[in-house]
Write a structure and sequence with these properties.
Elements: H1 2-18, H2 27-41, H3 43-58, H4 70-103, H5 106-111, H6 117-153, H7 163-171, H8 177-218, H9 223-246, H10 255-267, H11 277-281, H12 288-315
Helix pairs in contact: 1-6, 2-6, 3-4, 3-6, 4-6, 4-8, 4-9, 6-8, 6-12, 7-8, 8-9, 8-12, 9-10
């Protein structure tokens, strides 16, 4: 149900942003529409979609030598591939789009409409993040299909016995076998999507934070420096809380390392709390209200801080 709502919202926003005949009211929405079209039409978007889809489809036939845990390994690799693809798209798009417009004096034309710098920055962030949402949804569909076919070809994997399948065969058993097979496929696809949905949403929260940071830094820094800083923040944010635990005095850790790790863990977002890969591949149910919602609030707060920081940097930037 929640995955269907996410697909519906993504489709509506995609239609509003990408079709040229739909002119959105509001200056920041117009900037978001342009940024979304630019991000989805660039070769990088289609290259990431093709390469990641190819990797997930090839992973169906790869031997992992994990003693019966091949499906779990495949799910973990696919979720990591989706996160990596969306991060590359948003960070690179933010750096190129904003930096090139400022350096090429294109931003002068846009900001002379008149348009506030706040609307320009917010529109860029929203449009770029929506392109990442579209990419994540498309790759999630590919992942669900790959999981389904892995279950089909792997004799050791037991397919889940869904109550909806039994109801389908009980009440619609008079239909031709082709229609029943299509119905079973769609039900299994929906089941797989519902299992990976919390992990995909939490990954998108990570992407949202780094998109806000990339948009903020792009107002002052070139693309390469922007990429390096975003990558550093992502890695340190993933490791800081782990280093705090490992370097604690109770475990005989170094006090200086412990203090520095606490500083980074306090300042940077805890990206390790966003990682639901282990829960997803283990078949555990991630509560939407008790966990995903709180992680989302955490992400919104850090994104707002990053965009506010970017606005402060952008207000003093001479674009003329």
């Amino acid at each position: 149900m929640l995955w269907g709502v996410l697909l519906l919202v993504t489709g509506i926003i995609t239609a509003l942003l990408i079709f040229p005949n739909l002119n959105l009211r509001g200056k920041w929405l117009a900037v978001a529409q342009a940024a979304y079209r630019e991000s989805t039409r660039q070769p990088l978007f289609w290259l990431l979609l093709a390469l990641t889809s190819f990797f997930m489809l090839i992973s169906v036939y790869l031997p992992y030598f994990t003693f019966g845990e091949e499906l779990k390994m495949m799910k973990g690799l696919s979720l990591s591939a989706i996160l990596l693809a969306t991060l590359i798209l948003t960070v690179f798009s933010a750096g190129v789009s904003i930096s090139e417009e400022i350096e090429g004096r294109t931003a002068v034309t846009v900001l002379s409409k008149p348009m506030s710098r706040r609307a320009f920055l917010l529109g860029k962030f929203f449009g770029i993040f929506m392109s990442a949402l579209l990419l994540a949804v498309l790759l999630s569909l590919v992942m669900a299909m790959a999981v389904y076919y892995r279950n089909e070809i792997d004799a050791e994997e037991t397919k889940p016995q869904l109550a909806e399948i039994q109801q389908l065969e009980r009440y619609l058993g008079f239909l031709p076998n082709a229609f029943l097979a299509a119905g079973r496929y769609l039900l299994y696809l929906s089941h797989d999507l519902s299992l990976i949905a919390p992990s995909i949403v939490c990954n998108l929260f990570q992407v949202m934070i780094l998109t806000g940071l990339a948009v903020a830094l792009a107002t002052r820094l070139p693309v390469v420096v922007n990429l390096v800083i975003c990558l550093t923040v992502f890695i340190v944010g993933r490791l800081a809380h782990i280093v705090v635990y490992q370097s604690s005095p109770e475990r005989g850790g170094n006090p200086l390392v412990h203090v520095m790790a606490q500083i980074f863990a306090t300042i940077l977002p805890g990206f390790n709390y966003f990682d639901m890969t282990d829960a997803t591949i283990g078949g555990l149910e991630v509560p939407w209200g008790d966990y995903v919602f709180h992680v989302g609030v955490h992400a919104v707060v850090y994104t707002a801080i990053a965009l506010l920081f970017g606005l402060i940097l952008f207000e003093d930037r001479d674009v003329a």
